[in-house]
Design goal:
- It contains 8 helices and 5 strands.
- The chain is α/β, with parallel strands linked by helices.
- The protein is globular.
């Protein structure tokens, strides 16, 4: 049997890592570029020997959050579950990249609280609604404008813009690579201070 005092737990695991786990919470309208930036950031982290995992809202809604709709109450629960999963993964030593519309300020603040001692970066992926509608890779805005999708953020459901995000990315002016680079620079700066 192993000695329980030698077991790594969330409270002492972080002291044994060569890098700082983070929760990076990308928030913004559908089509703003959250998933693209998350994928590029994950590749950048991997090339530097940093283990990461992406929690993408679209993917979560096909599994753990498949029982949720798009009412305000369901959106709140979607964010709560995602924050809890992000915390568990970060406790295991991963840099967690969350790509989730997460339209409500209060729930984003709660996600930060859930992170506990894990560093948390709220990243506002900012793109004008018109830009998101033009990109519309899944045709969701068109469907929402036609009344086929109810409670669509930015159309008939509110998006509360972050008042003071840790990082503000204007994806209308930045490339996805530049945007991911800004997040990476912030992470590296924090690691150097640790």
């Amino acid at each position: 049997m192993s000695d329980p005092s030698q077991t790594l737990n969330p409270n002492n695991l972080l002291d044994h890592l060569e890098y700082v786990p983070f929760i990076i919470w990308l928030t913004g309208l559908s089509g703003a570029g959250k998933s693209t930036i998350a994928s590029i950031l994950q590749r950048q982290l991997s090339s530097r020997g940093r283990r990461s995992y992406i929690l993408d809202g679209d993917i979560l809604r096909t599994g753990i959050n498949s029982d949720l709709g798009f009412s305000d109450a369901d959106r709140v629960e979607n964010i709560r579950r995602t924050a809890e999963i992000a915390r568990l993964l970060a406790d295991a030593g991963l840099i967690v990249i969350v790509a989730l519309i997460s339209p409500f300020r209060r729930e984003r603040a709660q996600a930060r609280t859930t992170a506990g001692r894990i560093p948390f970066l709220e990243v506002y992926v900012d793109a004008p609604l018109e830009h998101c509608e033009k990109r519309d890779p899944k045709g969701l805005y068109r469907r929402a404008r036609c009344g086929e999708i109810a409670h669509f953020t930015g159309i008939d459901s509110a998006y509360e813009v972050p008042e003071s995000p840790d990082i503000h990315l204007d994806t209308h002016a930045l490339t996805a690579d530049e945007a991911a680079g800004r997040i990476l620079n912030r992470i590296q700066g924090t690691e150097e201070q640790a």
